[in-house]
Amino acid sequence: MTPTQLSALLVELLALPNETEWVEWKHNNDHPEMIAERLSALTNSATLHGRDFGYLVWGVEDGTKNVVGTTFRPRQAKKGNEELENWLMRSQHPQVNFQMHEWTHESDLGGVPVVLFEIPRASHTPIRYGSEEFVRIGSLTKKLKEYPEKERELWATFDRKPFETGTAKADLAGPDVLALLDYDRCLKLLQIPLPTDQQGILNKLADEVLVVHKPGGRYDITNLGAILFATNLTTFDRLGRKALRIIKYKGDGRTETEREWRDAPSQTGYAVAFEAAVAFINSQLPQNEPIGQAFRTEVRVYPEKAVRELVANCLIHQDFSVTGAGPMVEIFAGRMEITNPGEPLVDTLRFLDSPPKSRNEGLAAMMRRMKICEEAGTGIDKAVEAVEEAHLPALNFTVPPGFTRVFMLGQRTFGELDSKQRINACYQHACLRFVQGRRMTNASLRERMGIDDASAAQASRLIRDAVQAGVIKLFDPEARRKNASYVPIWA
Does 231 share its domain with 257? Predict the structure, then answer.
C-alpha cells in the first residue's frame, strides 16, 4: 500500500468508537514478546469477528486516539542477534504472513512516523505464540484456553469461511483491478460476453465473486479471482508461492534440472495458465514411436487425459493455508510426480468411488464451469481409465506429511512390477470396473496387465494375493471358479 492508502486506512480505523478486538493502538511499546502475543491474539480475533485482517498500530495514543508518532522502527529492531521480523515470523505457529508498514502520516502535529502491522485472519487453526493461543477480549489480550466458548466459536468459524471469499488484494481503483486480472480470458472461459465499458466489466467480475465492491468506488480482489485469473500471482503477497511449478530432471533423481517452466504464463492464475501448463508438460514427456501401416507416429508415454485430470485435481484440492509451498509437477526419465500441499480429505484407497469432497468448493465449481476439470468428481476415474488403456502401471497415491502426491510410472512389463505395484493395479482395476457397473474377472485382469491367455495362472495368483491383502473380495462366494468375479473390499 502507498502512504496515501495507509493514511486513509488509519483514518478509517481511528473512526472506530473504541479499541476493538481486531485493532490495537500503541505509542512506543516495542517489546518483542508483547508483539508476538498481539500477533496471535489479533489474527485469531480477526477470524472471530469476520475480519480479513487485524491491525497493530504504533504512533497512536491509547484512549485519546491522537496520532502522536512513534520511535519504533521494526525493520531496524532485533530480538537478541536476530532481526525482529524474522523472529516474529518464527514465533507464530502456524506462521502468520503479516505485513509491516512504516510511513509518515499528516496529523495535527504535522508529519509523524506511524507503524502498522497488517495481520491476516487465522484460516484453518488458531495461531499460537510458543505453547499458548491468544485472543482479544474487548481491549485486553487473554489466553484462548481461558475462554472455552470463544475457542469453540473460533473452530466453528474455520468451517464457515472458505478460502475463495478471502481478500487477496484490498482497496483498489477499478483500473488497477483490470490491470491485475486477465478479465478478457476470464469472461471468455466463462462464456460471458465482454461488456463495452470498464464499469460493466467490473460488475461482471463482482457477479462472479472475483471482486467485491467497496464504498467510494473501490474494490477488493478475492482469493478466487486472484488464484484463477491473476496476470501475475507474485503481485499478490499471500499467493505468490502458489503458482504451478513444473520441473524436468535429467535421469531419475533431483540432482540435475534439465528444464523448468518459466514461460510467460507460469506466474499467471490457474485458469489463464492451465492449457499452457499441460502443453508444456506434454512437450517434456518421453515418447514412443509405433510404426503404423504407412507412417511413423509419436505417442506420449503418459496419456494426456490422465495428465490433465491429475494436474487439475492437484490445483483444486490443495490446502491454501499451507504457506511456503505450492502445487508441483516433476518429470523424471521413468516417472512423473504431481504434488500438492495438504493431506486429502478422503482415504486414497477411496479416490475412485467417494463423492467429491474439496476444501475449495468455489474453486472447484468454477473450474468445472470452465471445463478445466470433470463434473461430479470423476477426474480420478478418468485418469485411472486412461492409464489402464495405455497399459501403464497403476497410479500410486501417497500422503507424505502435509502433502498429497501421485506417481505415474512409465512402461513396465508385468515381470518388472513388484508385488505392491501389481496388487495396486489389481485393486484399481476392480474399483474402476465397479464404478462402471461391471466386475473384475481373471480375463479382464489379464487384459489390463498384458498377461497372455496361456499365463492365466499369473492372473489367478495376483487375484489371490489381492484378496489376502484385503483390497478385493469375491462377488459371489458360491460361484464356480471359472465364473468367479471380484469387487473392491468396500463394495
Answer: no
For the chain, helix (H) and strand (E) counts, in that order, are 15, 23
In angstroms, how far is the first alpha carbon of the chain from the final one?
56
pLDDT at res. 297: 47
pLDDT in the model for residue 256: 94
**147 shares its domain with 176:** no
Q: Are residues 364 and 482 in the same domain?
A: no
DSSP state of 60: B
The tens digit of pLDDT for each residue in 214-236 reads 877 889 999 999 999 999 999 99
C-alpha cell at 487: 469387487
AA letter at 219? Y
Each residue's pLDDT tens digit, 406-465:
999 998 999 999 999 999 999 999 999 998 899 999 999 999 999 988 888 999 999 999
Q: Which of 177, 211, 239 is the last residue of a domain?
A: 239
The one-letter code for the residue type at 24 is E
Q: For the residues of 222-233, what is the DSSP string, one character each? A: EHHHHHHHBS-G
Q: How many domains does the chain have?
A: 4
Task: Write out pLDDT tens, residues 158-184.
Answer: 766 688 888 899 889 999 999 999 999
Nearest to 124 by CA among 170, 69, 85, 162: 162
Contact 166, 222 (CB under 8 A): yes
Q: Which of 363, 388, 411 delimits the end of a domain?
A: 411
> Residue 375: pLDDT above 80?
no
Identify which has the larger pLDDT, 159 or 44.
44
Query: Dihedral angle at the C-alpha atoms of 302, 303, 307, 313, nearest 10 degrees?
Result: -120
**139 and 224 inside one domain:** no
Give the CA dihedral 298, 303, 309, 310, nearest 10 degrees.
Answer: -110
Q: For residue 242, count other CB atoms closer than 10 A to its CB.
A: 24
Contacts of 382 (CB under 8 A, 6+ apart): 305, 306, 309, 374
* Ordered strands of the 23-26 beta sheet: 23-26, 53-58, 110-120, 99-107
Its domain, for residue 435, covers 416-491
pTM for the whole thing? 0.69
CB 339 within 8 A of CB 405: yes
Confidence of residue 259 (pLDDT cuts 50, 70, 90): very high
Amino acid present at 53: F
Do 157 and 220 belong together in one domain?
A: no
CA distance 471 to 467: 6
What value does the mean pLDDT take over residues 15-26?
Answer: 86
Do 7 and 53 fall within a single domain?
yes
Cα separation, 441 vs 444, whole angstroms: 5
Strand ranges inside 193-325, DSSP E: 211-214, 218-222, 245-249, 257-260, 287-288, 299-300
Shared domain for 220 and 352, answered yes or no, is no
Do 332 and 196 fall within a single domain?
A: no
Residue pointed to by grid coordinates 505453547: 131
